[in-house]
Amino acid sequence: MPNPKRKLARSWKGGRRSHDHVHVRSLSLCPRCTQPKLPHRICGTCGYYKGEMIVDMKKL
Ligand SMILES: [Zn+2]
To answer: How far is the CA of 30 from the centre of ligand 1 (A)?
Structure first.
């Protein structure tokens, strides 16, 4: 296989966009407020993570 001098841009070869929207798919539910949140992240609704209040959402 010859060494490509340049990376082919998607517009040159008709890029497929089927993988453009697969980044955010898994959500877990916060055990405290049962709102969907990102796993291993602080809950954006109540500010709790692993049973501890990391961010006090009432003050914000
Ligand atoms: Zn929560």
So the answer is: 5
Centre of ligand 1 to C-alpha 20, Å, is 28
What radius of gyration do the chain's Cα atoms show?
21
pLDDT at 48 (0 to 100): 95
> For 11-22, how does the pLDDT look when each residue is reduced to its tens digit (9 = 90+)?
877 877 877 767
Q: How far is the CA of 51 from the centre of ligand 1 (A)?
A: 10
C-alpha span between 42 and 49 (Å, rounded): 5
Which residue, among 42, 20, 19, has the nearest Cα to 32 in the 3D structure? 42
